[in-house]
Structures are given as structure tokens and as C-alpha cells.
Design goal:
Number of helices: 17
Helix content: 25-40%
Low-confidence stretches: 499-505
Largest sheet: 7 strands, mixed
Strand content: 15-25%
Number of domains: 3
CATH architecture of the largest domain: 3-Layer(aba) Sandwich
Radius of gyration: 24 Å
Number of strands: 21
Shape: globular
CATH class of the largest domain: Alpha Beta
Mean pLDDT: 86
CATH topology of the largest domain: Rossmann fold
Length: 508
């Protein structure tokens, strides 16, 4: 049987750094191929070669046995290859139907008109195919992330894609939405579609894939049946060594010194009477389900969003008129969950991204000219401390980095400003197990150096693995507090799922 897609000895380098080194593999019709590897392993570059985003330095591609030379993403689309990205390529200001037919609206009987009845009918058929019972004219910004994911798949079906590439598709989905997505994927392979599934959730890859390809440092290091890959072997192949523990041992303990105190912070309908302290040397976790108010609270603490009442104290001193600028002056850092849109300037070089917060420190008081050499040296020193994997930081744009290394740039940006309080919202979202270990080690070192770290995470295992204490939020309130000695997954989840009531918070 002729494979659907074949890659033969593909090679690609950026800024003198090889991203893909002689990779050869194939995907069959009706098969799911799992593709795993650390951030920076070359997965995204390999898929960009398939999608016509970048072009190989050497090697060749075959599609259904024929030479395949995509010069643009449009070429890949027309050849029957669709991408379902982690950050969906949809227009939230348009309707579902408009998103599906964005490039080929059926024409009406008169020039410049569209056949709206046909658009509506075909959209309904496509939505039915993915199990989505929503009106075609519904604006995209009114549906959930999981439903948007299904709209993206419906668009792929409309394009009659033979190969669908899923890149971290479950990052923003609930458990129910994830299971729904997996059911649709099984249906697609049963129809003869080929799937490449990229994810850092190794259990999902093993569950879904027929075969698994493992990449490390731009090379393909294994390609075998999924049954041959216990999780431990997957991790070992990805990182090139065995990881006995997913979390580094904590090397410090909290002191009695209060760095940050939140007193009675309230915004009607969002958060209610939130109070807690963050101590020097402490890693404090904030857990809750979607909609619990965790991120909203973090933004209020940093001054990005206002709050109706309450106060924020830094080392016992009230933070008057909270704002990001006031927070930075008070040595508070905020590592946002949305690094691409809020944390980094993606097209700008790494050095300037690292220097963003600290830029005034490198400017002369007299003429306000930035000392470029001093700035670059400080940025390079910080990048070295965090073991950033990159080319020349003065030339390479941050968008060319892997997700894990982009997250290191976000942290480096704040480290350079020497903060004592770190607020980290989903600090390891979308990065692999090896990069996560490195981020956890950085967090431990921050606490060991006397900083206080507040981690907001949807991954309970992450919080129990790293934190000294966990606060649980539900419907805008803190409903539970657990010390490390009392960490219990069932009790923490029970607190998070608890219906709103006037009882006192649960303690561990």
C-alpha cells in the first residue's frame, strides 16, 4: 500500500542551527501517527515543512506516491493537508459558517453575491459530521474552545483533507471536550483519513496512536508501534536520559517574612473577599477549575485589572493605585499564561525581549540613550543562567524558539528586573516534560534565593509536586487551603468541585 505521506531525509537549519536532521518517516491512510519530543526537538519545523510554511534545505516529500513541493500553506491546503493548531486559526468576529467557507464562499446568481442558503445547508452538514449542534450563523466568540476546535475540524472536512495534523489540540479543552475530540479523531481514521497527532500529554499519544515517532535534537530517534512505548521509555527517548522524578527536590522552605499580602480583594461577580499571604522562600499554588477566578485574581494583584474593594500589600506596605508599572516598581513579576500575545514580542530578537522590563536601567539619565552593549551582555548572562537554547540572541527572533525556550525568555525578562515576588500563570502550559523539569528547577531556585512564587495551574500534579501550600478557588472564592503534609488529590479536587455555600474554607 502506498503511504499517504512520505518524508525522505528532510533537513532544515535556521541561523546556523539545525532544526531537522535527515528525518525519514511515513503516514498511512486510516492511521494515527503520534509525534513526540521536547520543545526544540524539531516537531514544529518538520510539520512546517509538510505545510509549506518553510522549505527543506535537502530531502524530498511524497504525497500519495507523487512528488510534493508545497511552497505556501495554500499549496498544502489544496493538496489535502489540514492543520489543527494549539492556537486556532479562526476569526472570532465571524460566524461559524463564515469561518468554514472563508476562502471559497459558494457564489450566488449575481456577480458579487453568495449563495447563503447553500452555505447554511453545507455548514449544518459539516457540523453534524463532527457532532456539533449549533446554528451556522452563531458568532465564534460565543462558543467554547472545545466547540471552536470542532469548527476547525469541520473546516478541514470541507477542504476534503486527506491528512489532518493536530498540534497540541487539547491544551485549552475540558476533559469532556477532550474525549469528544478523541471520538471524532477515531471516526476520521475510520473514514480513511491520516492523522499526525502532536502532544506533550504522553498518555493521550499512547492511547490514540497506531505508531509513535520520537524526535530529539532534530533527529528521529524511534519509530515503532505504540504498544512498544511505555511512558517511561517515551520520556527516556525524548530527553536522552532517564527521569526518575518529574519534579526536582525542593531545596528551601518558607520563612516567616510576608512578601505579598492580599486583603479582602473583591470584584462583584468575579472574586469575593480573597485574602492570603505569600512568604519569602514559599512556592504557593492556586488551583481551581475553569471559571474559578484564578487568572482574574492574578491580573488584579498585578494591577492589570481593577478590583472593587480590598488591598494589596508588598512587604507590609500598601500598594496604592495598583497598576503594572507600580507592581514592577514594587518588584512583582507576572508571567502570563498567554506568552505569545501578552508575554513576548514574537518578531523581535531574544535580547530585546529579555530587556523589555529592565530597559530604563540601560539608558543614560542625561540623553536617554540605551547602552546596547551593556543591555546585550546582561541579557546574555540571564539567558546563560536559564540555559536558553538559541542562536545569537541579538539576531534570532523569539518566534523561532521552541515553546519551552520562549517560556524561558519570559522568565528571563523578569529575572533581569530582580523581582522578589513572582506570579506565574500556567508556567508550563504547552511545553514538554524535559522543559517542564527545567522550569520547575528555576522555580525552586527562585524560592531558595528568597523570592516568593505564586503558581496558578490547572495541573494538580504540578502543584502537589512543587508547592509548599495550595489554595483552592471555586466560583470566585478561596474554598480550601492545604499544607504540603496534607496534600491529597481527592480532597483538593473535592474542594474545587464544591458548590458555592457559606461554609468556611476546607483546610488540609
Amino acid at each position: 500500500m502506498t503511504p499517504l505521506l512520505e518524508l525522505h531525509d528532510l533537513t532544515k537549519a535556521f541561523f546556523g542551527v539545525a532544526a531537522v536532521k535527515g528525518v525519514s518517516l511515513h503516514v498511512n491512510a486510516g492511521e494515527t501517527l503520534g509525534l513526540i519530543g521536547q520543545n526544540g526537538a524539531g516537531k514544529s519545523t518538520l510539520m512546517n515543512l509538510v505545510g509549506g510554511v518553510v522549505h527543506p534545505d535537502s530531502g524530498r516529500l511524497l504525497l500519495k506516491g507523487n512528488p510534493y513541493h508545497p511552497r505556501t500553506p495554500a499549496d498544502a491546503q489544496q493538496s489535502g493537508i489540514a492543520f489543527i493548531h494549539q492556537e486556532l486559526n479562526l476569526f472570532t468576529n465571524l460566524t461559524i459558517a463564515e469561518n468554514i467557507f472563508i476562502s471559497d464562499f459558494p457564489r450566488g446568481g449575481f456577480p458579487g453575491t453568495f449563495n447563503r442558503a447553500k452555505i447554511k445547508q453545507q455548514t449544518r452538514e459539516l457540523l453534524n459530521a463532527v457532532g456539533l449542534d449549533i446554528a451556522p450563523e452563531t458568532p465564534l466568540d460565543r462558543i467554547s474552545p472545545g466547540e471552536r476546535q470542532l469548527v476547525e475540524i469541520a473546516r478541514a472536512l470541507h477542504q476534503d483533507a486527506a491528512l489532518i495534523i493536530f498540534d497540541e489540540p487539547t491544551t485549552s479543552l475540558t476533559a469532556r471536550e477532550t474525549e469528544r475530540l478523541f471520538t471524532i479523531m477515531d471516526q476520521l481514521t475510520a473514514q480513511g483519513k491520516g492523522i499526525i497527532y502532536i502532544s506533550h500529554i504522553l498518555g493521550d499519544v499512547r492511547k490514540l496512536a497506531d505508531r509513535i515517532a520520537v524526535m530529539r535534537d532534530g533527529e528521529l530517534v524511534a519509530l515503532e508501534a505504540a504498544d512498544n512505548f511505555p511512558i517511561s521509555r517515551m520520556i527516556s527517548l525524548m530527553v536522552g536520559r532517564s527521569i526518575e522524578q518529574l519534579y526536582p527536590p525542593r531545596t528551601s522552605a518558607p520563612t516567616n517574612k510576608s512578601l505579598l499580602e492580599v486583603r479582602g480583594v473583591r470584584t462583584a461577580g468575579i472574586v469575593e473577599n480573597i485574602s492570603f499571604q505569600l512568604k519569602a522562600g514559599e512556592v504557593l499554588g492556586l488551583f481551581g477549575l475553569m471559571g474559578s477566578g484564578r487568572t482574574e485574581l492574578a491580573r488584579m494583584i498585578f494591577g492589570m485589572d481593577p478590583f472593587d474593594s480590598g488591598s494589596i500589600l508588598v512587604e507590609g506596605e500598601p500598594l496604592h493605585k495598583p497598576s503594572p508599572r507600580a507592581s514592577i516598581r514594587s518588584k512583582i513579576a507576572f508571567v502570563t499564561e498567554n506568552r505569545r500575545e501578552e508575554g513576548l514580542l514574537m518578531s523581535i530578537d531574544i535580547a530585546n525581549n529579555i530587556s523589555l522590563v529592565s530597559l530604563p536601567e540601560f539608558a543614560s539619565n542625561l540623553i536617554q540613550m540605551v547602552d546596547q552593549q551593556q543591555m546585550h551582555e546582561a541579557a546574555q548572562e540571564t539567558a546563560t543562567i536559564l540555559q536558553l537554547k538559541s542562536g545569537d540572541i541579538r539576531q534570532q527572533p523569539v518566534k523561532a524558539l521552541s515553546g519551552g525556550n520562549q517560556q524561558k525568555v519570559v522568565i528571563a525578562k523578569w529575572l533581569l528586573s530582580r523581582p522578589s515576588i513572582f506570579i506565574m500563570d500556567e508556567p508550563t502550559r504547552g511545553i514538554d516534560v524535559g522543559a517542564k523539569y527545567e522550569i520547575y528547577s528555576i522555580i525552586d531556585q527562585l524560592a531558595a534565593n528568597g523570592s516568593g512564587v505564586l503558581i496558578i495551574s490547572s495541573e494538580l500534579e504540578e502543584l502537589t509536586g512543587m508547592c509548599d501550600r495550595i489554595l483552592v478557588m471555586s466560583q470566585g472564592e478561596v474554598v480550601g487551603e492545604f499544607d504540603r503534609a496534607a496534600f491529597n488529590r481527592e480532597r483538593i479536587l473535592s474542594a474545587a468541585f464544591r458548590e458555592h455555600n457559606p461554609e468556611q474554607p476546607v483546610s488540609g
